[in-house]
Design brief:
It is globular, with a radius of gyration of 16 Å. The mean pLDDT is 86. It is of the alpha/beta class. β7 and β8 form a beta hairpin. The chain contains 3 helices and 8 strands, in the order βαβββαβαβββ.
Length: 140
């Protein structure tokens, strides 16, 4: 067995793909690694040297499994991704940039007792995105 994917099932694929592209500066691909997302029910995102994840249309999944899925509202706390930055100051800079670009603020940058500087925002479906660093540097 091998670990192959992490998936998020958004209610609105177009809105979610645009969020991850325009707010988080990630590039969307279609299954099979085609150059650009084709507007269908699946998009994958890869960051160089890191793991990737996919967005799968919740509507398409409901058709496939023949059942209606729960649609969480607000900040759902069920799914999240973590973005790691080299320096503490990067957390503050990226948190504010991402908020200005359209993310929902959840937790402003804070220093944790275990040495991490962390913050949280939410995507259009309320999935959590951690912006964090275990690095060194000026804390702002």
């Amino acid at each position: 067995m091998k670990f192959s994917a992490v998936g998020i099932f958004p209610a609105n694929m177009e809105k979610s793909v645009r969020f991850y592209e325009n707010v988080l500066n990630m590039k969307a691909f279609t299954a099979g690694g085609q150059e650009y997302w084709d507007g269908g029910g699946y998009a994958e995102f890869h960051m160089e040297g890191n793991c990737g994840f996919g967005l799968f249309s919740r509507k398409d999944l409901e058709v496939m499994i023949s059942q209606k899925l729960d649609d969480p509202s607000g900040i759902n706390g069920r799914t999240g991704i973590s973005l790691d930055y080299p320096e503490y100051g990067d957390v503050d800079k990226e948190f504010h940039r991402i908020i200005l670009a359209g993310a929902t603020p959840v937790l402003e940058p804070v220093d944790m007792p275990w040495g991490q500087r962390t913050s949280y925002v939410a995507d259009p479906d309320g999935n959590l995105i951690e912006i964090a660093s275990m690095g060194q540097g000026d804390r702002k």
